[in-house]
C-alpha cells in the first residue's frame, strides 16, 4: 500500500517498526502535493525545505528512542495558524507577505512532538466563508469534483485530507468551518468544545466562537491529533484547565445503550433528499449497533444563523481593526495622510466578504443599535445554549446532517450571501452553545459527492463523540472511499 | 470671576501603576528604554496574540478602591474601546466599561468657603495604555514606540462635585498622595504617571442642571491644572455673558499661553463601540482577596494626620506638612523611633530637613542626613550637650561630612559649657566691661539683660548654656 493511503495510526506503527523513515514518507507527501496541489489549490504555502529538515530531525529523534506519538508524521495546518518564519496569510491580501515571529500554541505542540509541517492550507479569508471562494490565493476545489467547492472556511484542510496530500490537518471552526468542509470532502472533522484547544496564535475571526480542531480520514486519527493539541494554555485566558482524557482509549467502547437524539428542527423540508436518506441510514446503523434513538427539540434553532451573524461579525469588526497598514501587512500610502492610508490599505487589503462582515459587525456595535443587535444576540445565544443543555439532560449525543446539501458549484452562491450563510445552518448552533461536534462521512449523493453526518456532544464530551464516530466507521466504509485524483 | 455663575468640575485621573510587567503580557514597564525594545506579540497586537491579565494590576486596583472608600465589584468585565490610531496596535484599547472593578467611593477635602466637602468617586477601572508617537526632527512622518503600549493604568473618575480650581487641586493632591502612599504609582506628573483631564462647566448660581461641559486635556502639573480650569471658567462665563453658548468639546491646554483651545473635528465624532472583550473572562474578585488587601493597606495620609495630632500631640500644620509626602512621614517616623520626642523631631523634619530638600531638590530618602544621624543630633539637644544654635551648625556639618553628631561635637569642641564656675568667670568679665549697661539695668531698664547675655555667649563662643548665663547674671545684678 502506498504511503499516502495509510492512515495516521498505521503510519505511527510503521514508522515505529522502521518500515520506512519520516524522510521517505515526507518526500512521498511532498511529491503528492506537487502533483495534485496545483489543480486543487489546497495549499497556500508548501514548506518543502523545512519539512524535509523536520523529517530528518524526526528520524534522528526516533533513532535515539525519544519518539513522541507524532514524531515524523507529515501534517498540514490551515493558513490561520501562526508559524514562526513561515508566511501566514489567513487567506488575505492584507497579510500576503506576513511572516509571524512566533508559533501558535497548537503548532508549537505539534512541533514539540516532532511532527512535520508540510505546508499551510487554503481557506476563506480570515475564516469568513463556507466555500473557500473568499481566498486571496484563489478558490480551493473539491477533490471529488473540481467544479464543486470543498466547503469552508477550512476548505484546504478538508481537501488536502481527501486528496491524501496530508494524513491529517488542523483547521478552525467558528460556525462550521471544520465540519462543513469535512462533510463536503468526505473526511472526519472535529470541532472540540470551546476552551479545549488554545487559540493563542490562531488569527482571530470571532473570539468567542473560534476553536481549533483536527481533520483526518478516520475518527481514530482525529483522536490522535486532538490528543496532541488539546489542553490548557496559560497564554489563552479562555482555554479551560480541565484534564485531557486519553481519547484513543475511548475508541474501544461500543455504543450499546447510548442515547442519541434527533433534533426535529434539523430535519426540515429544505433538506436535500440524498442528504436526508444518508443521514436516516446512519441513524439505522446506530440503532442496529444498540443505540437508543429519540426525538428531541432545540426550539431556538431558527434564530441561530441571525444570532451568529451578529455575534461573529461584531467580534470580527474589532478583531480585524489591527490590520491597519501601520505595523505589518499591506500598506497603501498615497501620501495623503493617515486616514487615507488606513482606508486605502483596508480597502485594497480586504476582500468583499470580509468588508461585508466588518460593516455588519460595526453596525451591530454602534451606539444606538448595540442593545437591539449585539445585546439581543447575546440573549438569544443563551437561549440556544440552554436548548442544548436541556437536550443533553435527555440524551448523550445529538445526530444531525452537517449541511442541508452536498457541495455546491463554484460561483453558485457567491452573489447570494444569505444562501451561502444558510449552508451553515446545522453547524452554527454548536459554536454558539460552545460545545463539541464532529462530522463523519455517511454516504454519497447521486452526483457522487460526499455527505456527512454530524454528531454533537456535551461540553467536554469529545470522548463520547469519538467513541460513537469510531463505532460507526467500524461498520461502514464511506471513509475508505477515495477521491479520484 | 462673576459671582452670577457657579463652576462645576469633575476630574478623570489616569494613574500609571508601578507593576514590573504590563497589564496583559510579561513585558517590562520600565520607562525610557530603547523604542520598541520592551514588546512582544501581545503588546504589539500581532495577529493571533491574546491578552492575559496581570493579577498585580487587579490587586493595585483593589488597593486604590479601598483607599478611596469604593465598593469592590465581585465581578467586573473588560471591554474593548474601538478606535483607530497609530499608537494603538490592536485598533482597540482593553478597558472596563459597564462593569468596572470599583464604584461609589469618595474623598473628603477641605475647601475655602464651603468647609469640608465630600467629593464622590464614580468609578475606578483598569485599562491598558497606548504607545507613543515620536516625531523625529528632519525626518518625514512619525515613528511609533510601543514600549508604553499595554502598561497598566487606573482611570479614576470623580463626580462633578468641585466648584473651583482650588477644590479640584485639593482633590487631586489628596488622590495623588493616596496612590503614592499605596505604593501603586510613582506620582510623577511630568513623566505622565499621574494624568488629569478636567470636565468644566458653569451654570447660573442656584440652577440645578449642569451647563454644557468642556473636557480639558494635556495638563501635566498641578499649577497648569489650576490655570487651565481658571481660564476655562472665565472663557465659558464670558462666552455666555456675550450671548454665546458653550459647546461640548475637548480642549487642549496650552501651557505657554495659559489658554485652552478646541481640538474639534474627528475626535468629537467617536463612537467607541464598547463591547465585552471575548478574549478575557469576566474578572471575579473573592471577598477574601479584598479583605486580605484591606489588612495589608498601609496607614493612609488621613489616618496618619489624625494620629500625629492626637497621639503625638503635633500641631495641625506640622502634622500636615509631615504627612504630605509618605517618604517624609517615613523619615519622621524613623527618626522618632530612635529619639522619642515628637515635637523636636517634627520641628527639625519640617524645618531644616524640608529646607534642605527644597534647596537641593533631593528626595528625602537620598539625603546625607539619615534619620539615624538626625536622631543622634536631637539626643544631644535634649540632653543639653549643645544648644539649638550650635545644633544648627552641627547639622550642617553632618550634612557635609556624613559623620554623626557626637563625632562632630567632639572634633570641633562644641560641647555646651554647663560648668557654672567657668561661666561665672565669663559673667564677671562681662559685668566689669559693661558698667553703663549694669547701671541702666539697676535703674529699671531690665531689657539690657539680653545684651549682656549676648556678650557672655559671645565670650563663650556659643557654648555656654544660655539659661545658666541668664540665671547667673540676674543673681549678680539683683
UniProtKB/TrEMBL annotation, chain A:
GO biological process: translation
Coiled coil: none
Cellular component GO terms, alphabetical: glutamyl-tRNA(Gln) amidotransferase complex
Pfam families: Amidase
EC number(s) per entry: 6.3.5.7
Residue ranges annotated for the Amidase domain, each copy included: 24-466
InterPro entries documented for this protein: Amidase (IPR000120), Amidase_CS (IPR020556), Amidase_dom (IPR023631), AS_sf (IPR036928), GatA (IPR004412)
A molecular-function term among this protein's GO annotations: transferase activity
PROSITE patterns linked to this entry: AMIDASES (PS00571)
Reactions that this protein is recorded to catalyse: L-glutamyl-tRNA(Gln) + L-glutamine + ATP + H2O = L-glutaminyl-tRNA(Gln) + L-glutamate + ADP + phosphate + H(+)
Sorted UniProt keywords: ATP-binding, Ligase, Nucleotide-binding, Protein biosynthesis, Transferase
Active site: 78 (charge relay system), 153 (charge relay system), 177 (acyl-ester intermediate)
Family statement drawn from the similarity comment of this UniProt entry: Belongs to the amidase family. GatA subfamily.
Summary of the function given for this chain in its UniProt record: Allows the formation of correctly charged Gln-tRNA(Gln) through the transamidation of misacylated Glu-tRNA(Gln) in organisms which lack glutaminyl-tRNA synthetase. The reaction takes place in the presence of glutamine and ATP through an activated gamma-phospho-Glu-tRNA(Gln).
Subunit structure, as described in the record: Heterotrimer of A, B and C subunits.
HAMAP family hit by this protein: GatA (MF_00120)
Protein name, as recorded: Glutamyl-tRNA(Gln) amidotransferase subunit A
From TrEMBL, chain B:
EC number in record: 6.3.5.-
Source organism superkingdom: Bacteria
GO MF terms held by the record: asparaginyl-tRNA synthase (glutamine-hydrolyzing) activity; ATP binding; glutaminyl-tRNA synthase (glutamine-hydrolyzing) activity; transferase activity
Catalytic activity field: L-aspartyl-tRNA(Asn) + L-glutamine + ATP + H2O = L-asparaginyl-tRNA(Asn) + L-glutamate + ADP + phosphate + 2 H(+); L-glutamyl-tRNA(Gln) + L-glutamine + ATP + H2O = L-glutaminyl-tRNA(Gln) + L-glutamate + ADP + phosphate + H(+)
GO BP terms, alphabetized: glutaminyl-tRNAGln biosynthesis via transamidation; translation
Enzyme class: ligase
Ranges for domain Asn/Gln amidotransferase: 330-477
Keywords from the named record: ATP-binding, Ligase, Nucleotide-binding, Protein biosynthesis, Transferase
InterPro entries named among the record's database cross-references: Asn/Gln-tRNA_amidoTrfase_suB/E, Asn/Gln-tRNA_Trfase_suB/E_cat, Asn/Gln_amidotransferase, Asn/Gln_tRNA_amidoTrase-B-like, GatB, GatB_C_1, GatB_Yqey_C_2, Gln-tRNA_amidoTrfase_suB_CS
HAMAP family per the UniProt record, alphabetical: GatB
PANTHER family the record matches: GLUTAMYL-TRNA GLN AMIDOTRANSFERASE SUBUNIT B MITOCHONDRIAL AND PROKARYOTIC PET112-RELATED, GLUTAMYL-TRNA(GLN) AMIDOTRANSFERASE SUBUNIT B, MITOCHONDRIAL
Subunit note: Heterotrimer of A, B and C subunits.
Family: Belongs to the GatB/GatE family. GatB subfamily.
Protein's job: Allows the formation of correctly charged Asn-tRNA(Asn) or Gln-tRNA(Gln) through the transamidation of misacylated Asp-tRNA(Asn) or Glu-tRNA(Gln) in organisms which lack either or both of asparaginyl-tRNA or glutaminyl-tRNA synthetases. The reaction takes place in the presence of glutamine and ATP through an activated phospho-Asp-tRNA(Asn) or phospho-Glu-tRNA(Gln).
Protein name: Aspartyl/glutamyl-tRNA(Asn/Gln) amidotransferase subunit B
Organism: Geothermobacter hydrogeniphilus
High-level lineage: Bacteria, Pseudomonadati, Thermodesulfobacteriota, Desulfuromonadia, Desulfuromonadales
Gene name tied to this protein: gatB
Amino acid at each position: 500500500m502506498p504511503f499516502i493511503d495509510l492512515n495516521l495510526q498505521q503510519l505511527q506503527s510503521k514508522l515505529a517498526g522502521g518500515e520506512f523513515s519520516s524522510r521517505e514518507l515526507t518526500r512521498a507527501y511532498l511529491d503528492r502535493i506537487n502533483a495534485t496541489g496545483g489543480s486543487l489549490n489546497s495549499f497556500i504555502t508548501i514548506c518543502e525545505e523545512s519539512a524535509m529538515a523536520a523529517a530528518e530531525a524526526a528520524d534522528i529523534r526516533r533513532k535515539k528512542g525519544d519518539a513522541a506519538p507524532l514524531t515524523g508524521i507529515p501534517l498540514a495546518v490551515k493558513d490561520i495558524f501562526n508559524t514562526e518564519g513561515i508566511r501566514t496569510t489567513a487567506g488575505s491580501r492584507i497579510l500576503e507577505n506576513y511572516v509571524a515571529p512566533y508559533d501558535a500554541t497548537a503548532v508549537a505542540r505539534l512541533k514539540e512532538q516532532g511532527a512535520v509541517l508540510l505546508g499551510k492550507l487554503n481557506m476563506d479569508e480570515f475564516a469568513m466563508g463556507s466555500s473557500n471562494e473568499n481566498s486571496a490565493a484563489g478558490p480551493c476545489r473539491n477533490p471529488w469534483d473540481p467544479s464543486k467547492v470543498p466547503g469552508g472556511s477550512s476548505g484546504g484542510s478538508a481537501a488536502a485530507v481527501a486528496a491524501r496530500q496530508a494524513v491529517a490537518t488542523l483547521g478552525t471552526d467558528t460556525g462550521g468551518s471544520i465540519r462543513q468542509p469535512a462533510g463536503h470532502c468526505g473526511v472526519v472533522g472535529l470541532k472540540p468544545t470551546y476552551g479545549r484547544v488554545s487559540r493563542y496564535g490562531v488569527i482571530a475571526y470571532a473570539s468567542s466562537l473560534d476553536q481549533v480542531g483536527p481533520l483526518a480520514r478516520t475518527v481514530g486519527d482525529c483522536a490522535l491529533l486532538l490528543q496532541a493539541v488539546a489542553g490548557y494554555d496559560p497564554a489563552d485566558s479562555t482555554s479551560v484547565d480541565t484534564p485531557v482524557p486519553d481519547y484513543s482509549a475511548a475508541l474501544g467502547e461500543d455504543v450499546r445503550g447510548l442515547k442519541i437524539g434527533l433534533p426535529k428542527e434539523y430535519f426540515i423540508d429544505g433538506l436535500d433528499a440524498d442528504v436526508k436518506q444518508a443521514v436516516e441510514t446512519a441513524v439505522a446503523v446506530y440503532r442496529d449497533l444498540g443505540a437508543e434513538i429519540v426525538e428531541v427539540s432545540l426550539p431556538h434553532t431558527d434564530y441561530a444563523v441571525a444570532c451568529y451573524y451578529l455575534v461573529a461579525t461584531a467580534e470580527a469588526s474589532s478583531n480585524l481593526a489591527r490590520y491597519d497598514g501601520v505595523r505589518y501587512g499591506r500598506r497603501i500610502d498615497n501620501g495623503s495622510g493617515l486616514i487615507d492610508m488606513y482606508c486605502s490599505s483596508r480597502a485594497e487589503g480586504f476582500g468583499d466578504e470580509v468588508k461585508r462582515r466588518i460593516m455588519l459587525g460595526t453596525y451591530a456595535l454602534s451606539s444606538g443599535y448595540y442593545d437591539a443587535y449585539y445585546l439581543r444576540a447575546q440573549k438569544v445565544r443563551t437561549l440556544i445554549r440552554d436548548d442544548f443543555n436541556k437536550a443533553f439532560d435527555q440524551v448523550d449525543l445529538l445526530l444531525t446532517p452537517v449541511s442541508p446539501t452536498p457541495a455546491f458549484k463554484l460561483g453558485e452562491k457567491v452573489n447570494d450571501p444569505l444562501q451561502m450563510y444558510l449552508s451553515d445552518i446545522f453547524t452554527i448552533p454548536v459554536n454558539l452553545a460552545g460545545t463539541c461536534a464532529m462530522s463523519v462521512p455517511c454516504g454519497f449523493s447521486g452526483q457522487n459527492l460526499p455527505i456527512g453526518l454530524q454528531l454533537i456532544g456535551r461540553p467536554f464530551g469529545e470522548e463520547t463523540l469519538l467513541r460513537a464516530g469510531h463505532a460507526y466507521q467500524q461498520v461502514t466504509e464511506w471513509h475508505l472511499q477515495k477521491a479520484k485524483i | 470671576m462673576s459671582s452670577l455663575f457657579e463652576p462645576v468640575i469633575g476630574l478623570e485621573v489616569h494613574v500609571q501603576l508601578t507593576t514590573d510587567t504590563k497589564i496583559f503580557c510579561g513585558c517590562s514597564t520600565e520607562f525610557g528604554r530603547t523604542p520598541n525594545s520592551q514588546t512582544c506579540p501581545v503588546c504589539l497586537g500581532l495577529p493571533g496574540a491574546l491578552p492575559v491579565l496581570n493579577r498585580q494590576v487587579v490587586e493595585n486596583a483593589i488597593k486604590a478602591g479601598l483607599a478611596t472608600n469604593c465598593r469592590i465589584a465581585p465581578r467586573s468585565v473588560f471591554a474593548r474601546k474601538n478606535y483607530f490610531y497609530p499608537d494603538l496596535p490592536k485598533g482597540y484599547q482593553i478597558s472596563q466599561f459597564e462593569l468596572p472593578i470599583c464604584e461609589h467611593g469618595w474623598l473628603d477635602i477641605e475647601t475655602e468657603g464651603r468647609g469640608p466637602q465630600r467629593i464622590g468617586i464614580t468609578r475606578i477601572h483598569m485599562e491598558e495604555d497606548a504607545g507613543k508617537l515620536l516625531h523625529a526632527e528632519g525626518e518625514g512622518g512619525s515613528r511609533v514606540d510601543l514600549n508604553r503600549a499595554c502598561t497598566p493604568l487606573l482611570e479614576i473618575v470623580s463626580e462633578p462635585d468641585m466648584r473651583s480650581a482650588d477644590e479640584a487641586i485639593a482633590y487631586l493632591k489628596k488622590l495623588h498622595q493616596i496612590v503614592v502612599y499605596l505604593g501603586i504609582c510613582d506620582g510623577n506628573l511630568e513623566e505622565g504617571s499621574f494624568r488629569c483631564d478636567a470636565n468644566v462647566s458653569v451654570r447660573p448660581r442656584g440652577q440645578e442642571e449642569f451647563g454644557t461641559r468642556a473636557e480639558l486635556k494635556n495638563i501635566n502639573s498641578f499649577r497648569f491644572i489650576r490655570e487651565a480650569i481658571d481660564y476655562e471658567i472665565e472663557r465659558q462665563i464670558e462666552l455666555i455673558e456675550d450671548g454665546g453658548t458653550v459647546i461640548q468639546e475637548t480642549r487642549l491646554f496650552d501651557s505657554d499661553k495659559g489658554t485652552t483651545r478646541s481640538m474639534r473635528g474627528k475626535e468629537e465624532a467617536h463612537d467607541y463601540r464598547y463591547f465585552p472583550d471575548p478574549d478575557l473572562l469576566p474578572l471575579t474578585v473573592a471577598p477574601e482577596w479584598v479583605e486580605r488587601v484591606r489588612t495589608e493597606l498601609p496607614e493612609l495620609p488621613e489616618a496618619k494626620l489624625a494620629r500625629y495630632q492626637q497621639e503625638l500631640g503635633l500641631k495641625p500644620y506640622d502634622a500636615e506638612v509631615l504627612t504630605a509626602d509618605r517618604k517624609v512621614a517615613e523619615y519622621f517616623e524613623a527618626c522618632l523611633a530612635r529619639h522619642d520626642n515628637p515635637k523636636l523631631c517634627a520641628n527639625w523634619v519640617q524645618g531644616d530637613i524640608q529646607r534642605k530638600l527644597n534647596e537641593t531638590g533631593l528626595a528625602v530618602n537620598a539625603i546625607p542626613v539619615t534619620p539615624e544621624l538626625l536622631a543622634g543630633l536631637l539626643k544631644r539637644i535634649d540632653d543639653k550637650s549643645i544648644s539649638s544654635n550650635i545644633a544648627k551648625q552641627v547639622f550642617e556639618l553632618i550634612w557635609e561630612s556624613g559623620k554623626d553628631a557626637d563625632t562632630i561635637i567632639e572634633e570641633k569642641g562644641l560641647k555646651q559649657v554647663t560648668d557654672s564656675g567657668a561661666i561665672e568667670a565669663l559673667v564677671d568679665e562681662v559685668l566689669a566691661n559693661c558698667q553703663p549697661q549694669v547701671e541702666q539695668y539697676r535703674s529699671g531698664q531690665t531689657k539690657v539683660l539680653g545684651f549682656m547675655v549676648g556678650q557672655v555667649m559671645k565670650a563663650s563662643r556659643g557654648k555656654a548654656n544660655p539659661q545658666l548665663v541668664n540665671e547667673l547674671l540676674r543673681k549678680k545684678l539683683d
